[in-house]
Specification:
With 380 residues, this protein is α/β, with parallel strands linked by helices. The chain contains 13 helices and eleven strands. The chain has a single domain, classed as Alpha-Beta Barrel (TIM Barrel), CATH 3.20.20.70. Helix 4 crosses helix 6 and helix 10 packs parallel to helix 12. The structure holds iron/sulfur cluster.
């Protein structure tokens, strides 16, 4: 049952606004106690072990407690696009992505037809006829379903690989109940907590009890940069403490199969978005991650930044990350000796820039079943 108590004096993130969201009050994240969702669907814009050829069952939540002005999903964090959805409807729509055997519905609060409509039983891509190959150590762009000889229909109609909750912290009470109902309905997929990194450690400890995979950002090592971008200078210490706890509780992402053939089932992958003109921040982020976790920590160093409308209004971050800037960051990855690294050879496929006005499919790239342009850093 949904427990609304945490919304009455909301302290679900480090901003601790203390507003009563059940009374319609809104704090920094801009959301009341009604669950609002912008999109639910199979998404192919994540790292290969999370996507494979089945896709990641991604739930984009509206609002954000981090609120960086350059947010690549500003339509959700600033414009609050999304639809108010009840728990039952949300569960039903997620189950459409991860069909479960009909008998699993027994005793579930989910309407029986949710499973009866399922086209195929849940499966793993490991069972699929995808040819085996690996890009480890290869100089070619890494594996993705894009451009691969894998027929697009190989996994068509089958279950997604995981349930991926994007920017979830401010709706934790709803999501806890949704996860409970999905498990009760027979959904056995891993749950992914895909967050900004600006999370309360106490709540992460609760979340780690039921979430399988964590994808925290580590955006800023510089308190000044954090203050400029999101209005808080405590981001570095908060994010660092949170990642420490998560690695302690869940370990590193595993299995770590850079080809994407084996689905990741558990653990932590830390993401960092390189910002134009802020290479020193990226280098410091890498230093701190190395200091805390060593070179085996799986990391994703992203180059996909694009200037969003607020960047132009503020005249900050008005360009892409340059080759030279990204090369410096990747060179530091090499110097530190990180071995499980996703990098982006270019600033990404425009087809994975979302437009959430098209809630049915905000990413053109998903229709083409592509994995975001990424490769695994050379182990050499
Ligand atoms: S979740 Fe929203 S209302 Fe609650 S403390 Fe964070 S920003 Fe404030």
């Amino acid at each position: 049952m949904l427990d609304l108590e945490a919304y009455r004096h909301c302290e679900l993130c480090p901003r601790r606004c203390g507003v009563d969201r059940t009374a319609g009050q809104r704090g920094f994240c801009g959301e009341s106690a009604e669950l609002r969702i912008a999109s639910i669907g199979a998404h192919f814009g994540e790292e290969p072990p999370l996507v494979g050829c089945e896709g990641s069952g991604t739930v984009f939540l509206t609002g954000c407690s981090c609120g960086c002005f350059f947010c690549q999903n500003y339509q959700l964090s600033s414009e609050h696009l999304g639809e108010i959805l009840g728990i039952e409807e949300t569960v039903r729509r997620i189950l459409e992505l991860c069909p479960v055997p009909a008998h699993s519905c027994a005793g579930s609060p989910v309407p029986a037809h949710s499973c009866a409509e399922s086209p195929v039983p849940a499966h793993s891509c490991a069972e699929s006829p995808v040819p085996a190959h690996s890009c480890a150590g290869s100089p070619v762009p890494a594996h993705s379903c894009a451009g691969s000889p894998v027929p697009a229909h190989s996994c068509a109609g089958k279950s997604v690989r995981n349930i991926n909750l994007v920017t979830p912290d401010h709706f934790w009470p709803h999501l806890r109940e949704i996860i409970r109902q999905l498990r009760e309905a027979g959904c056995e997929l891993p749950f992914v907590w895909n967050s900004s990194g600006y999370s309360r450690v106490e709540l992460l400890a609760q979340q780690a009890e039921i979430i399988d995979i964590f994808l925290p950002d580590f955006k800023y090592a510089s308190p000044e940069l954090a203050k400029r971008c999101m209005g808080r200078d405590d981001y570095p210490e908060v994010a660092r403490a949170g990642i420490r706890l998560l690695v302690d509780r869940k370990g590193f992402l595993r299995p770590f199969d850079e080809t994407g053939e084996m689905a990741a089932t558990r653990g932590v992958l830390v993401r960092h978005l390189v910002l134009p003109g802020e290479v020193e921040n990226s280098l410091a982020v890498l230093d701190q991650l190395y200091e805390d976790h060593g070179p085996m920590l799986p990391i994703s160093v992203m180059r996909q930044f694009r200037p969003m409308p607020e960047c132009l209004r503020r005249n900050q971050f008005t360009r892409l990350v340059s080759d030279e800037e990204y090369s410096r960051v990747v060179a530091h990855v090499r110097e530190l000796g990180f071995t499980r690294v996703f990098i982006q050879p270019d600033c990404g496929d425009e087809n994975f820039v979302p437009d959430f006005r098209h809630a049915g499919e905000p990413f053109k790239g998903n229709a083409q079943r592509k994995v975001r342009g990424q490769r695994v850093e050379d182990r050499g």
